Task: structure prediction
Amino acid sequence: MVDTRFHRFAGPIALGALLVRAGRSELAGALAAPGQVISGVSELELAGPDDLALAAQQGYAEDLRRTGAGVVLVSPALREDVPAGAIAVVLDRPHELFADILDLLYPASTRAVIAAAGRDDLGAPIFERDVTLGANVVIGPGVEIGRGTVIGANTVIGAGVTIGRNCTIAANCTIDCAHLGNDVVLHSGVRIGTEGFGWLDFGRANRKIPQLGRVIVQDRVEIGANSTVDRGALGDTVLGEGTKVDNLVQIGHNCRIGRNCLIAAMSGLSGSTIVEDGVLLGGGVGTSGHLTIGAGSVVHGRAAVTKDWPAGSKLAGAPAQDIRDFWRELAAMRKLSKGEKRG
Amino acid sequence: MVDTRFHRFAGPIALGALLVRAGRSELAGALAAPGQVISGVSELELAGPDDLALAAQQGYAEDLRRTGAGVVLVSPALREDVPAGAIAVVLDRPHELFADILDLLYPASTRAVIAAAGRDDLGAPIFERDVTLGANVVIGPGVEIGRGTVIGANTVIGAGVTIGRNCTIAANCTIDCAHLGNDVVLHSGVRIGTEGFGWLDFGRANRKIPQLGRVIVQDRVEIGANSTVDRGALGDTVLGEGTKVDNLVQIGHNCRIGRNCLIAAMSGLSGSTIVEDGVLLGGGVGTSGHLTIGAGSVVHGRAAVTKDWPAGSKLAGAPAQDIRDFWRELAAMRKLSKGEKRG
Amino acid sequence: MVDTRFHRFAGPIALGALLVRAGRSELAGALAAPGQVISGVSELELAGPDDLALAAQQGYAEDLRRTGAGVVLVSPALREDVPAGAIAVVLDRPHELFADILDLLYPASTRAVIAAAGRDDLGAPIFERDVTLGANVVIGPGVEIGRGTVIGANTVIGAGVTIGRNCTIAANCTIDCAHLGNDVVLHSGVRIGTEGFGWLDFGRANRKIPQLGRVIVQDRVEIGANSTVDRGALGDTVLGEGTKVDNLVQIGHNCRIGRNCLIAAMSGLSGSTIVEDGVLLGGGVGTSGHLTIGAGSVVHGRAAVTKDWPAGSKLAGAPAQDIRDFWRELAAMRKLSKGEKRG
Result:
């Protein structure tokens, strides 16, 4: 469910009317129940009977079969996986209609988050006692800050953000679309809740997929200077309890980082990377998106992780492999090149 | 031509007098026309009859032969390539004299841009209607901002910058020496128009080459959180229409990025990289400078591009090669190492 | 010695009492001189007779033998290396007790630096003449700024920081725990003096090692946009005279960079990297920590330096090797893969 603290909802609206507004009257006309009310948009696994959800690719078939969504946009290949209780809107390239619908239901979301204006519905900020604000701190409507939290000078906190107790937020940070737990530390220049890099029609129109999710920063997380954490596209980007992130790290939309991980400087996690508990990432590690690094894994500096790895993996290289294979390959290479003249 | 909105010109001055002030009386004495007026400094291809330009290396011979510059500083090897209409000042290491002249004609440019002081000549900022400024936004003299543009809290916009209509500039950004088109989006912490990394006498004096160019950000460009775009040394760094740049990306001086490109997080483009239209760069891609990536190319994550590639290239690896060669090499390596004991 | 301009000292205290407060009465009880006063904590090589220091690993044996510290915490293996004048507190995992002691003697250091509050002991800031402050600049107690220095808008300067003469600090920077020389240039978004990434009990408790050092930025250093320089854990992170650092570079705690180095964009130096004078690092270079790159070395872009290299080295590759070996290996690889079918 899109969190309306961060993204204002322009509905509810009947499905038929919504499709007409999206310029798809032919789809509206084909509906058995055009009056079905849409009260929000959600991910398949969290959607309820008034929600609309998307299943564009085969990888979502499993989630689709179990969804509680009232309405699903699906590509023809997934038609058979729509559960009995859901209304299916079947079309090619459902992503495009989905983006149209997001723009209609949560209008101008990029600008609305940054402008942080017109959110009087959220009410005045609420501070518990012993909150310390540095000079020129800017606090949006509806912000809540817990007891004992310190906010450094010139930091900007956007509409609806909540920050727990005893947090330490350094100077010159920006926080949007996020809920922070207790004892969180953000060092200077951190950006939380920026938009993920999600586009349709790559290299031609580069149309933005609206970024309507949040960032959840759990207790005792620490994030280093000038690091960036994008909000979910839908749903959440999550940093688990006790996880520590170094400087200049990029965490893409919908990443889920477990508890007590360490992520060294200049690492970059592409969208929907799952890092389980207690994983160590060395400096400059990168990941392709939509993969899982199992609990307790150790990924050496500069590794580029390109696929799932089980718990306890020890990885190195680009593309990353088991570190024993990495060393073996390096040794083979060294031996081979001995036959060559020194360049 | 150096844009005097951003870099104040201390001239005009006669060429002979300029060389004397630069401590090169012997060069002044050798001039046939020491009274030739210098009204600005420019790149070879854009220079006019009152401009001074530089041709230090063989790679500029072609531009030199076609230049309209009134005066050119050239190394002896390029003497024959100076066109008939231009006055040639011939010397070894012309870069050094060129830097001296830039410092004389555009004094203290590093500091002048950052101080943004003493630019009363630019007049008061001009806003079209419906411009929204967040708290603590700082606007320099001569700034112009178009209708419907939103500027987030604590952002700093330097002297002379122009921003088009319906732009969305997030919090805590810094913009100097730049012209932005319409519908541009900058996410939080973006730095536009910082100085390029250009030095003489590497590793010894590390003398700065004055950075007197601009950044041109065309319509519908979007730039991710904490990314940096350096201004040209002379001339412009350009991001073409519809190009989207992710978080923590570095774009060096005088890069020219085409239209509708996508540049994923943590990529770094060295100075004078040319990226043609519709190119996709994966995460963590790097380029050596002074090279061209042809239109529609796809460069996979972590590739290090070291030379020109034609349109439609598909690249991977470091140094980057055709992706089929990359996979072939990886396969050969994997096969070879099977003979080795696992490390 | 921890610099009390940046980190307030809660002592002095007798060693016995300190160990009791740290919950180690058994160690206190075993002391011959429990009344020994502790007036500060220091690195082995700089410690004096009232200082406490740590020697946890074999690599510190040499420093331990020469230390002037009054008290040393050592692991059993190092017991024999404690010099005659020092009191040895011998225990397993001395790092953990050391962290406890740092927290007792310099309490809540993360928060204290960021809050910059309660430091009235430092007195009002002191400016020489001709200091120019941009709008919304925030200056902590005890800051000193030299003649002719310019500070850009929205920059935040923490308690006790000193800045020399004729420096140019751009907008939106953050400076803590640092002493800057003369003619230093920081571009926009630079973070100086943030905490190093130092933890105990990796991947489980992730306990922070208090970061109580400083950053020393010598004359004529220049640091590019959005780069980050962590303060020492104990002791200093140092950038030597005339060294120039590009955008988006990370410099870890206790790095020591020599004079007149050039460090190109997106390089990352892990903790305790020593870079000697006149070294050139290309873009995207990384280093493992605790190693030395000898004077005048040239490290090509993307190299990952994993061990010591002597003066004048020319390095490439990941892991980095002599560039001639790098090219030889690349050639062998290219030759080998010719036998494979193109992928």
User: Anything to note?
Assistant: Chain B has two domains: 13-107, 122-327.
